[in-house]
Amino acid sequence: MKNDPFFEPVSGAVLPRFAGVPSFMRLPVVEDNHDRIGDVDIGIVGVPWDGGTTNRPGARHGPRQLRDLSTMIRATHPVSHISPFKMVNCADMGDCPINPADLNDTMERVTAFYKDVKSRGITPMTAGGDHLVSLPVLRGIASDAPVGMIHFDAHTDLFDSYFDGFKYTHGTPFRRAIEEGLLDPKRVVQIGIRGTMYDGEDIEWGRANGVTIITMDEFADQTIADVMKQARSIVGDQPTYVSFDIDCIDPAFAPGTGTPEIGGFTTREAQLLVRQLKGLNLIGADLVEVSPPFDESGNTAWVGVSMMFEILCMLAVAVDQRN
Amino acid sequence: MKNDPFFEPVSGAVLPRFAGVPSFMRLPVVEDNHDRIGDVDIGIVGVPWDGGTTNRPGARHGPRQLRDLSTMIRATHPVSHISPFKMVNCADMGDCPINPADLNDTMERVTAFYKDVKSRGITPMTAGGDHLVSLPVLRGIASDAPVGMIHFDAHTDLFDSYFDGFKYTHGTPFRRAIEEGLLDPKRVVQIGIRGTMYDGEDIEWGRANGVTIITMDEFADQTIADVMKQARSIVGDQPTYVSFDIDCIDPAFAPGTGTPEIGGFTTREAQLLVRQLKGLNLIGADLVEVSPPFDESGNTAWVGVSMMFEILCMLAVAVDQRN
Amino acid sequence: MKNDPFFEPVSGAVLPRFAGVPSFMRLPVVEDNHDRIGDVDIGIVGVPWDGGTTNRPGARHGPRQLRDLSTMIRATHPVSHISPFKMVNCADMGDCPINPADLNDTMERVTAFYKDVKSRGITPMTAGGDHLVSLPVLRGIASDAPVGMIHFDAHTDLFDSYFDGFKYTHGTPFRRAIEEGLLDPKRVVQIGIRGTMYDGEDIEWGRANGVTIITMDEFADQTIADVMKQARSIVGDQPTYVSFDIDCIDPAFAPGTGTPEIGGFTTREAQLLVRQLKGLNLIGADLVEVSPPFDESGNTAWVGVSMMFEILCMLAVAVDQRN
Amino acid sequence: MKNDPFFEPVSGAVLPRFAGVPSFMRLPVVEDNHDRIGDVDIGIVGVPWDGGTTNRPGARHGPRQLRDLSTMIRATHPVSHISPFKMVNCADMGDCPINPADLNDTMERVTAFYKDVKSRGITPMTAGGDHLVSLPVLRGIASDAPVGMIHFDAHTDLFDSYFDGFKYTHGTPFRRAIEEGLLDPKRVVQIGIRGTMYDGEDIEWGRANGVTIITMDEFADQTIADVMKQARSIVGDQPTYVSFDIDCIDPAFAPGTGTPEIGGFTTREAQLLVRQLKGLNLIGADLVEVSPPFDESGNTAWVGVSMMFEILCMLAVAVDQRN
Amino acid sequence: MKNDPFFEPVSGAVLPRFAGVPSFMRLPVVEDNHDRIGDVDIGIVGVPWDGGTTNRPGARHGPRQLRDLSTMIRATHPVSHISPFKMVNCADMGDCPINPADLNDTMERVTAFYKDVKSRGITPMTAGGDHLVSLPVLRGIASDAPVGMIHFDAHTDLFDSYFDGFKYTHGTPFRRAIEEGLLDPKRVVQIGIRGTMYDGEDIEWGRANGVTIITMDEFADQTIADVMKQARSIVGDQPTYVSFDIDCIDPAFAPGTGTPEIGGFTTREAQLLVRQLKGLNLIGADLVEVSPPFDESGNTAWVGVSMMFEILCMLAVAVDQRN
Amino acid sequence: MKNDPFFEPVSGAVLPRFAGVPSFMRLPVVEDNHDRIGDVDIGIVGVPWDGGTTNRPGARHGPRQLRDLSTMIRATHPVSHISPFKMVNCADMGDCPINPADLNDTMERVTAFYKDVKSRGITPMTAGGDHLVSLPVLRGIASDAPVGMIHFDAHTDLFDSYFDGFKYTHGTPFRRAIEEGLLDPKRVVQIGIRGTMYDGEDIEWGRANGVTIITMDEFADQTIADVMKQARSIVGDQPTYVSFDIDCIDPAFAPGTGTPEIGGFTTREAQLLVRQLKGLNLIGADLVEVSPPFDESGNTAWVGVSMMFEILCMLAVAVDQRN
Question: Does the interface ipTM go beyond 0.85?
């Protein structure tokens, strides 16, 4: 149902934006035992976990800071005039249970949580956490058949292993997801790849397996419209996931992240890229790698939630199309 | 009812302390329309308002940051072994409605909120906000008869007016409260007063009206036990309010506040002072003047919530005695 | 008189730039009782007030930090080679009196101050303060007839009211100014508008009343030259005010502000925009919303004073033309 | 050999303290393949690992920041006039190999490293890392027979498990060490314990097993001399380990740590405590839980290395006695 | 003349404390060409120079930040009730000219400035700058005969030279001053000395020459009253200078300084120490080594100006006695 | 010799990037007494000195912070696929000896160091320090004949003198270098010049002497390819030095510097500029003016080392061509 008042964010006229217990975008908190859980169309879920981080940790604190800053988001998109909160029922589903001491246990808990989300027909918008989070999320929502993905990132996250054979880090989720048949590599597009390389094996493997990798330099030689036209053509109208690593954006705009690379997207470019997702058959999305200890000011989280709102508008259109 | 599982904080074993929507001390959020509101003994209330601040603003952001840091508080006091969450039913009552654009309207909204709290038999623990907040709170809960107060602060907040006659600032609440008959000045004790003075008229007025003012220098010449023995004797066993301005603590420990004064309490001293409130007939308390923009790290808020827990234990004993 | 040595900034060769009591751009402080007040052409005025701020406060501390950073400004513009301090007599007029506890009183004091400025024939360059400051300034200098305005901002500040009818906030000054006949809406251009919207009523009202609103997306589709050609054509050669909200600039460049919106101007774009004001009949300008508690480093204030110097060059040309 | 010039720190007269590749206290870097490894008496070792951290991570970055700040340490103790670098041969042994992705693998690597250190007759001074580091260190150096320990900390780190049975976190190392026979609980003293409690089971278990726990309140009721006289008596003249968690110090002095508790030691108290270790049969020491992302200023690391130097003087005396 | 309204600080009732061009303690700026210069009793002078700093620079920015924070100082001392601004005529004399590129030139400029100050009968209160500043100040005001000094510091600043023979750094001013006959070493007391030592030659030289050095440990073993009784007895009633290095205070309270040493004074102890200077024949004082880049928050500068006010009260008493 | 394993950086698979004593890019430290010094092709040298800084100091701390952040650099360039560490032998040569108290002594020490570097046939990559560093470096490596220079900067550094005739500051190195015949002004190109001007004499002098100055505005009117084509044509195939002042980059990207100017290069633009140096006859390079106290986060240093890697790739190609 559209325009359900229960699913309206708290208005700034009722309670100023700096006030109140901070839920994502001031939406109602509807966990799985809530009596309105059956009416949720899009569930925003925090996954406060950085167990896959190989260098600078802290993304486990991401959902908390993102919730705080998200209370400054208003109701309507300034260009498309989409009001996602009116178009579909959005809710904060709380944080997915995790175990900071045990990687495998956490992976299983996250997968179970997202299987449940999927079984309820809810489209998830995830706030990480580090990028390894995407793997158990995909295990939860893409277990039926491989899905496509549009992936904004400075890094491919297609590495094979770290530290002498360790398979699960925030640099490997999509290699695993392709190996496990969760992603169809021919329907995967990666945009924004840059930064010094170990040896390039990740890019070679990706391209050999059919992944479309658009590096920052290739991006810069085209218009945003052309880049996204190509991306849209590759994923087509089949189910597609969106993964947005905040480090695709230049660290001047988003310094609070574990693996910054200079020469990245401006926020303006990031906005224009995401707005071109409109009409795709989006089945879920994540925004990951906001690391609050590396930006106590909250400026990075503000970029993060601003991008989450951009993505949410695209998810709302997709859900609306499917309804 | 004691040990009601509904009123237990979320355990760190179930959800790590950095996870989840942050309510005060991970307690359930029970606003006035919640069906368990009738069972609340102590309600923690945010008043996100700094409309009385004459110099460095930002205390309006206090409740949000205090909630965030409060998730690191555990269940039991290390010295007294009091478990307030087991002893009585505690809840986060959300933030009191305020109007950042209108001082008088806000004063009325806060008073109305606290009248309701009082009428429900709930003992309020308030998180400010600047110190002017205490005035409408007292109007709400002390309207029947003047109450006593133990007041920890670097400043008396007994000034008459600012800026050519303006009567309502964070430097004047207790002058107003005494004038309005909300506080019985003969049962008011102020501890920790220090800092350069305008002219000392506030102290003179206070003493002339019967307020007991223990300056930092007078405090330092006595034992904490003696200071608090005197304070306890002054307030006696009649209804007493506790007001704790974070700036009573030295700015090395709590820099995030609007009007710091050097030479203040250590946190250790503050803890020992508050622990001597045990057994008094406490009817409410506040902790005010945490200003997050002046300490983005959250260290000051951590001091603040640690002191809130100390005070909460004392309130729980008082409520338990009254029950 | 041009090249009056009294009105020269203190040279870095005489006193290093980090030394000395910091006046705006190291100019002489000439308050209204100074014997050279009659010779001032352009007066830089601080209005340290954030009484209209609905969310993150702190702009009251703006003038102080702007003065500090402004001591790094040198004498001559690198592109136009304009030396405003040689072209006309510039002075720091100190801070306008305000009352942080009383909105109406402050509005009246500011208006009175600017009426006096106008009566002396001084062109004011204001350093805010939040954006509500512009309203009493306009009341002071535009009381004879409606003026035009070129307005750089992320927000229209054309809202009707906040918090159930409150009419005076930093989101409403230009609606009030149009209603009061201070601004001629047909000669008002707003550039850089973006960010999530409440409901768009502000934009609708503005356009319905003749205001030209150039959103960030419309800006991005044109050259800066074209945008400013349009703006110049709209304001024409009649008296025109310039209002520059620091939040028109992207928060990566200027994070220290209360209501940041991603996807904003680079400082380079902002410079090019302002340089196109040359030759307009400018009667005053302001730069507002620098909030030091949200950027203690002073980087935002450095952007702010760098833009103030750009605007000052344009004012100097205008004053020189009128002389 | 004493006074070996190879083992002298680089003098500030030769290279200013802010210059040069930063080794611990400007000592030579002597890793295990270095030809002078056989001459090292005390080896300072970094263990850059926070795999046991249950809440705020970042201690993995500790050794790097500690090395940086340690370059401000000079040669001689101001009170005892001990010159540890002249008394025995001290060296920076680099960082112990760890695997950030695998807890068990890391534990084994650390243990192997310290077995090697022990076999070379080197007394280790460890810079963590989180407190779980102490367990594999003890496995490496205390495998022959249980040792005693003087432990400065806000927490007992005697918990049984976290998150439903996980046995290895920074809250459990000493329970494991006692269970494994690495520590003799009757020769273990813990000083500074404070902070809100889960349920007190850790303290009960410790006391039931013979551990002497001196809480902050018990500490405050005695002189430092008396506290340490008791501690010295308990550990006696048998081999004793020193473990110093930076969070024993109050967060005003050392905010950059994962689990701060207010009401802690001043640095002055911490210095006086450590100076009373003189003459004990110390076989190793660690300083843990400095978390740079929570204090980018380096102030906490400066406290950390200042305490490391205090401890190092005590180790030098012990080594000198054994030589 | 007492109570001259010209020399009153701007009242917070007239202009809020965050407003206005920031002079020291809101006093009038009276430079040497001002027509009231002849009426100044105590002149507060900035010396924005850190040319003697051997490690972490930035004290050149001290006077600016101290002025900013000093606007929060009010009129009257809370314990002694001294109102220095009423007792004698105080003024901000601006910043002494310096040459950041040339040590010798700067030394000469500072000396010349202070000779002029002395010749006018003005008692100077200096805000540094690094500690080398004290040498040219003493050359300016102590050229007639050696003076005594009470010196609060973590370091003796009695070193002979740095970097192979360089004689003028912030570690050497008082060795030079004694050699030059500016200070009478038998009337010099140093309090608070601590921190790791190079070799102790500075202390040996000082004691051999008659300087009384009270280390932090010696201080801690006595009451403040006893320490200051000894100090007062040593300087007697002859002319005495006060030099206050902010690093005598513990870095938890004052982190923004170049050479912090843990285990220092609390601000409370520092206040009590300075209050015991009452009645001495004080001819000048300085407060040095506040380094803003190492504490952008201004908290250290706030400690600095709070101590400057304490010292100023003592200077006012001394001036009043001489008048 | 290529691919010498001794000169390989430590791999992140062996030791995580946050671990270990931080040398530049994890290369071996090979000082002049090391037995492999004869095999070094490119030596990275720190010059920790800011003795030429006229305003905000701190660049002396640059090399330390650059080393720390440089450990995040990987092995291969993402666009050119150059692996400089495989192509030639790179090493960290430590920090050049300097004397922070004596400008002339430091200049001589630096020159002597670089003469030695040159005599060994090593191509130096310098990490400053302030920009005056470039002068003694050029004296060391360009003493045979004038060299050309491509200079990226916001400022010309062609000033004559400061503070009444002082000739050696970070604003004058290249005027001196041209006067001394170290640089051939006709083969000098400066790119990125902007910011308010004193009087423009520096630019006039430069152009009169044949220096090509491309201001930011002139840069913006051309493609990067065209700008660099012109630059390449001017320096030709003769020996050329590269000097990269971090302040050429916009302060949003690199705030930690002493003299920021808004409207600068993005890091993306800076990367593209440097990549056009390929194939030039480069004999050395420097990256200067990173000032850690003005950016404790390390973000600016990260930009700095990312640009150092870009430049290093260009140096490696040049060395490889000469070998």
Answer: yes
Q: Which of B101, B168, B293 sits opposite C166 (nearest CB)?
A: B101
* DSSP one-letter string for D179-238: HTTSEEEEEEEEEEE-S-BSSSHHHHHHHHTT-EEEEHHHHHTS-HHHHHHHHHHHHTTS
Indicate the average pLDDT of chain D. Answer: 96
Strand order in the sheet with F183-193: F90-95, F42-47, F123-128, F282-288, F240-245, F147-152, F183-193, F212-215
Q: Which residues of B touch D (CB under 8 A)?
A: 12-13, 16-18, 72-79, 81, 250, 252-253, 266-268, 271, 297, 299, 302-303, 306-307, 309
Low-confidence ranges of chain D (pLDDT < 70): 1
In this complex, do D57 and A54 lie within 8 Å of one another by their Cβ atoms?
no
Instruction: State pTM to two decimals.
Output: 0.97
Tens digits of residue pLDDT in C99-130 = 988 899 999 999 999 999 999 999 999 999 99
Question: What's the domain count of chain F?
Answer: 1
- Which alpha helices (H) appear in chain F, and where do they start and end? 62-70, 84-87, 103-119, 134-141, 173-179, 201-208, 216-220, 224-235, 267-275, 299-322
Q: Lowest mean pLDDT: which of C52-66, F160-174, F201-215, F302-316?
A: F160-174
Integer Cα distance of D261 and E23 in angstroms: 40
Interface test with E, best of C14, C18, C33, C110 (most E CBs within 10 A): C18
H or E segment and range at residue C257: none
State whether D199 and B253 contact (CB < 8 Å).
no
CA distance F304 to F295: 12
Over residues A107-126, mean pLDDT: 98
Q: What pLDDT does E1 receive?
A: 59
Element (H, E) at F252: none
Distance CA E20, CA C95 (A): 5
**What pLDDT does F166 receive?**
87
CB E193 within 8 A of CB E154: yes
**Rounded CA gap, A26 and B286, in Å?**
26
Taking CB atoms within 8 Å and a gap of at least 24, the contacts of D181-186 are: D181/D146, D182/D135, D182/D138, D182/D139, D182/D142, D182/D143, D182/D146, D182/D147, D183/D138, D183/D142, D183/D146, D183/D147, D183/D148, D183/D149, D183/D241, D184/D146, D184/D147, D184/D148, D185/D209, D185/D210, D185/D211, D186/D210, D186/D211, D186/D234
Inter-chain touch D21–F67, beta carbons under 8 Å: yes
pLDDT at C279 over 80: yes
C-alpha triplet D293, D298, D303: angle, nearest 5°: 115
Instruction: Give C302's contacts in chain F (Cβ within 8 Å).
Output: 251, 260, 262
Q: Give the total residue count for chain D.
A: 323
User: F107 lies in which domain range?
Assistant: 26-322
CA distance E44 to E123: 9
Q: From residue E255, how far is each of D72, D292, E87, E251 by CA, in Å?
A: 15, 16, 33, 4
Calpha distance B323→B316 (Å, rounded):
10
Q: Is residue E116 part of a domain?
A: yes
Structure tokens at C22: 């910091």
Q: Is the pLDDT of residue F1 over 70?
A: no
Residue F14 lies in a domain: no
**Cα–Cα distance for residue pair D98/D107, rounded to 1 Å:** 8
* Residues of A contacting chain B (CB within 8 angstroms): 14-16, 18-23, 29, 46, 48, 60-61, 63-64, 67-68, 92, 94-95, 97-98, 100, 296-298
In a domain, E33, yes or no: no
> Residue B1 falls within a domain, yes or no?
no
Write down the pLDDT at residue F162. Answer: 84
Which CATH number characterizes residue E302's domain?
A: 3.40.800.10
Distance CA A36, CA A28 (A): 10
